């Protein structure tokens, strides 16, 4: 949560920072701010609300508009830090927005994370006479740095280092000091920080998206590392004062991937990208003619995968649902017992991990705090960790022993769509790899499954054809207050995911259930006002689903059914039906996800909701 961005160099820092904030806004959007350091003067602008509100506010500053100030002061080196917030300590407000300044106004800081021992540090500083204007833990850190700098008479980077030795928690911070205007300090534990290396200029951000239009050279800071960018040079060391060699990598991210490309929302663009993102996640990894799967990212650790007596999948939210769907095909095809756990629960138990357990951590961002902590716990207990992440260089991808990237491309809409189906694709490849190496699937069967998989992007295209029918359903149910989503077998995790999509972007209450569980409670909710959405494809659970639909119909419920194209029987029972192309059971997620995502999207759109940035949410959940 929270996005940080910093710049030092000869460009107009304001423009770099505001654009950077726009790119990072998916990480939090309840308030935003910028501090520009220019000829030893801080100009600080902060606003409750989205980045657009901050931008309007700054651009109405008249003569004080930052680019005009630069011109007037003839500043050579221009630096600044900026922040977009998802509130943790202190409600969203101008005063709690970052950057936070120290008491004397000497030091400005932006922070993504939580300082857990901020109260004891605050008490200590208050005894020394420090006053606090905000409710944030970040202001405490700004003052701690100031106090150390003043008393120990050290440079800003050393003051930051010494302060961090006293801090418990997770953070990525950027610090500027008035009296060292050619320096910017960055440090991290737990939260991400990427440095962009330009020609005599440096960019720092929570991810590479604000950086790639200026340079493709990036450094991913490791936990406990800090960087001093000083007088055009970069030095990296740990907060324990050990020097580190910077490892500069080239990012492959492209600028077009970060634009809406003519769609009204990123979410819609990302839904329609799925034929491409699923295809890219499989490209180079399968050979349908030969019936083989090649997974470079896990090749060296393949014995661990093949020896696993149990697979434990750890994830949160939509990624958890991808894991749940994978459990069905893992157990069906590999015969390895597979358990799927919310990372946020796993880590607070005392989980039993055996030597032959394999942990698969699934995370689009690769930064989800609970998933990261659960992975660390499992690793400490001796498990082998495979990561499935979308963001290259992210924390989970780096901490895992091995792993595979989903090549979905940047997912900007807060509601996950293309990452979900890409995760399913990669999990399926992993599953087929195990099944084929263990000779549980013969060549003929592998060729058949891989041929179907290769055709999935085309089937997903066909699933888009139902959009007109989906829009009609959306119009009919846009004012409904409650929804039930039911599915069985492979359809059950999809019912959970469909309900999650609807509630998070339309704010309609929706429950996903295993349809066999309906009569154990949820059926009491069914009356003539309750729409019940069934995933009623013609798969192995079809007959049972039809019976469940009849039970709802007998109680006057309204049925919306996602059905296999041409299925007249389910169509007759349903009040509204949405057709998807036929697939085998194991591939259902690819096609059935499309109407679930589009239905949520169109209902939210008709209700006028902020689709790409739903209230209270953030894309990268880096708090626990
Ligand atoms: C829902 C959604 C979230 C994420 C969850 C985990 O649409 O996006 O539920 O799936 O926060 O995020 P990652 O996959 O980044 O670990």
From TrEMBL:
Q: Which GO cellular component terms are attached? A: cytosol
**A single GO BP:** carbohydrate metabolic process
List each coiled-coil range.
Answer: none
Name the Gene Ontology molecular function terms of this record: carbohydrate derivative binding; glutamine-fructose-6-phosphate transaminase (isomerizing) activity
According to UniProt, the reaction catalysed is: D-fructose 6-phosphate + L-glutamine = D-glucosamine 6-phosphate + L-glutamate
EC code(s) of this entry: 2.6.1.16
Which InterPro entries is this protein grouped with?
Answer: GATase_2_dom, GFAT, GFAT_N, GlmS/AgaS_SIS, GlmS/FrlB_SIS, Ntn_hydrolases_N, SIS_dom, SIS_dom_sf
Cellular localisation: Cytoplasm
Question: What PROSITE patterns does the entry give?
Answer: GATASE_TYPE_2, SIS
Q: How does it assemble?
A: Homodimer.
Q: What is this protein called?
A: Glutamine--fructose-6-phosphate aminotransferase [isomerizing]
């Amino acid at each position: 949560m929270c996005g940080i961005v910093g710049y030092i160099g000869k460009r107009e820092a304001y423009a770099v920072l505001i654009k950077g904030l726009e790119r990072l806004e998916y990480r939090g959007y309840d308030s935003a701010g910028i501090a520009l350091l220019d000829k030893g003067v801080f100009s600080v602008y902060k606003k409750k609300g989205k980045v657009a509100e901050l931008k309007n506010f700054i651009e109405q500053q008249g003569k004080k508009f930052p680019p005009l100030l630069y011109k007037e002061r003839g500043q050579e080196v221009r630096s600044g830090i900026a922040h977009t917030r998802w509130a943790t300590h202190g409600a969203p407000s101008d005063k709690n927005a970052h950057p936070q300044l120290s008491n004397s106004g000497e030091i400005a800081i932006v922070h993504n994370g939580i300082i857990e021992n901020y109260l004891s540090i605050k008490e200590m500083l208050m005894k020394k006479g420090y006053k606090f204007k905000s409710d944030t833990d970040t202001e405490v850190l700004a003052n701690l740095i100031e106090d150390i700098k003043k008393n120990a008479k050290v440079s800003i980077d050393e003051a930051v280092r010494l302060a961090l030795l006293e801090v418990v928690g997770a953070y990525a911070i950027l610090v500027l000091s008035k009296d060292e205007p050619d320096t910017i300090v960055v440090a991290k534990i737990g939260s991400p920080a990427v440095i962009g290396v330009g020609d005599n200029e440096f960019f720092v951000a929570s991810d590479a998206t604000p950086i790639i239009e200026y340079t493709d050279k990036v450094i991913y800071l490791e936990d406990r590392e800090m960087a001093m960018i000083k007088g055009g040079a970069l030095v990296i060391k740990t907060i324990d004062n050990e020097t580190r060699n910077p490892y500069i990598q080239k990012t492959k991210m492209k600028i077009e991937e970060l634009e809406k490309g003519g769609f009204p929302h990123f979410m819609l663009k990302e839904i329609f990208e799925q034929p491409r993102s699923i295809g890219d996640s499989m490209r180079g990894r399968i050979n349908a003619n030969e019936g083989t799967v090649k997974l470079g990212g896990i090749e060296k650790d393949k014995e661990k995968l093949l020896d696993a007596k149990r697979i434990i999948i750890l994830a949160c939210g939509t990624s958890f649902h991808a894991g749940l769907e994978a459990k069905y095909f893992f157990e069906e095809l590999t015969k390895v017992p597979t358990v799927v756990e919310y990372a946020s629960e796993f880590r607070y138990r005392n989980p039993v991990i055996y030597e032959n357990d394999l942990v698969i951590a699934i995370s689009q961002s690769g930064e989800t705090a609970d998933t990261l902590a659960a992975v660390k716990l499992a690793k400490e207990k001796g498990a082998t960790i495979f990561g499935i992440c979308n963001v290259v260089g992210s924390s989970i991808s780096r901490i895992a022993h091995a792993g595979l990237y989903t090549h979905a491309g940047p997912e900007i809409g807060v509601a996950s769509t293309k990452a979900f189906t890409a995760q399913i694709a990669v999990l399926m490849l992993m599953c087929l790899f195990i099944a084929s190496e263990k000779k549980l699937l013969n060549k003929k069967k592998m060729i058949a499954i891989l041929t179907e998989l290769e055709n999935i992007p085309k089937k997903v295209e066909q699933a888009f054809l139902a959009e007109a029918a989906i829009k009609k359903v959306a119009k009919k149910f846009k004012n409904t207050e409650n929804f039930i989503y039911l599915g069985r077998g492979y359809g059950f995790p999809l019912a959970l995911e469909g309900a999650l999509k609807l509630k998070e972007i339309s704010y309609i209450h929706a429950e996903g259930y295993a349809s066999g569980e309906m009569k154990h409670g949820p059926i009491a909710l069914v009356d003539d006002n309750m729409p019940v959405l069934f995933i009623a494809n013609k798969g192995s659970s079809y007959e049972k689903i039809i019976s469940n639909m009849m039970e709802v119909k007998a109680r006057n419920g309204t049925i919306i059914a996602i059905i296999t194209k041409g299925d007249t029987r389910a169509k007759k029972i349903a009040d509204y039906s949405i057709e998807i192309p036929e697939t085998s059971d194991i591939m259902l997620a690819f096609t059935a996800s499309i109407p679930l995502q589009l239905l949520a999207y169109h209902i939210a759109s008709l209700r006028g909701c902020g689709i790409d940035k739903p209230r209270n949410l953030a894309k990268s959940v880096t708090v626990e």
